[in-house]
Amino acid sequence: MAHFDELYSDRAGKMRKSEIRELLRVTEDPEIISFAGGLPNPQSFPIQDLKGIVQTVLSNHGKIALQYGPTQGIKELREVIAERSIRESMKGGVTPENTMITSGSQQALDAVGKIFLNPGDIALVGLPSYLGGINAFRSYEANLVGIPLDKDGMRVDLLEEKIKELIKQDMSVKFIYAIPTFQNPAGTVMPESRRKKLVEIAHEYNLIIIEDDPYGKLQYDGSTVKPIKAFDDEGRVVYMSTFSKILAPGFRLAWIIASEDIMRKLALCKQAQDLCTAGFSQYIAYEFMKSGSLDLHIMKICEMYKPKRDIMMNSMKKYFPEGYICNKPNGGMFAWVTLPEQIDTEAMFLDAFKEKVAYVHGKAFCVDGGGGSSMRLNFSYSTNEQLETGMKRLGTVIERKMKVLCR
Ligand SMILES: Cc1ncc(COP(=O)(O)O)c(C=O)c1O
Description:
Layout (H helix, E strand, L loop, with lengths): L9 H5 L4 H6 L8 E2 L12 H19 L9 H13 L11 E4 L2 H12 L5 E6 L3 H8 L4 E8 L2 E2 L1 H13 L4 E6 L13 H13 L3 E5 L24 E6 L11 E4 L2 H15 L4 H12 L2 H27 L14 E5 L6 H10 L2 E2 L1 E2 L12 E5 L5 H23 L1
Parallel strand pairs: 1-11, 3-4, 3-6, 6-7, 7-8
Antiparallel strand pairs: 2-9, 4-5, 8-9, 10-13, 12-13
The protein binds pyridoxal-5'-phosphate.
């Protein structure tokens, strides 16, 4: 086999494999109960409804849906998304022109990295934060600086201090990456006061806010909080959300809302990425939304996930030894568990694997190397029975580890 090491770019050398994607392979073994991936439950996919919608798309839009389409996405879908966003009280001039359809939010994250980050630039991210975002920004050789989270999400007080410190050191700070609602992996929700403060800080230091909101609609109790974009009068918030968790990730369909200026750059970027997002998926999502099915479907998903969240939390109480910390997430798909500090969840993964249960260790989400005794548990993918059995297995693994460490 020939070797090409000297041919790869420096950038390619700095790319890291996604630990989560590696772990997803684990889910292929049917004996393993996996809390590792961020997968929606396949039982939630509206297959019957989609059969009819696929027919409608082919009959009504077939020749356009199967053709190359506009880079920004089909107008019909951008219009319904913009209308919906305005209903959710977003400011910052939300129009179909300021909305772009992307091939998953992952593409949107890559695009913001591409248009904002020079090598060495600072992107501020939560501690912990979404690994896919971290990897996307790292691929542009950014310097990722972590801001701790508490039970209310990113600590905006520490954020401001950190920005001041970085500016003093002459560092080029570009954006704050926030997942304010049912954060991945921590499950936290930023209250309105913090969202407003975040916008004020971004204004003060002329920064962009990347608001990543895949889980905002998966809400099981409590009241809705407006997106950060709703407090943005200046167009400095780049908002993104996705159909992956509210319809199906297989469509690879998401959207991004940004000011005119930023949108122009994003569209140029997308031209080079993939020319356009699949028109067929876009028309399906459009017809699904137009028929009024989306809201109903989101309600059904929440009805399915809420008891799953409860089974996970109750099983944690029942099977985990004392000493763990986990705040009950009011929505989303994840519980973030912190074990006593002497437990290394990365090392414990192998023990869990032997007991046929999987999770993602906390270090994977922390750019400062922290999170060593934490883990992320997904509750949406498993059946209710698997949730209870898997948590029991995990409880046994933790208990055994604690006994060994306390000896
Ligand atoms: C916070 C966050 N952002 C972005 C994504 C990527 O979503 P998509 O399937 O739209 O690419 C995910 C997926 O899990 C996520 O959790």
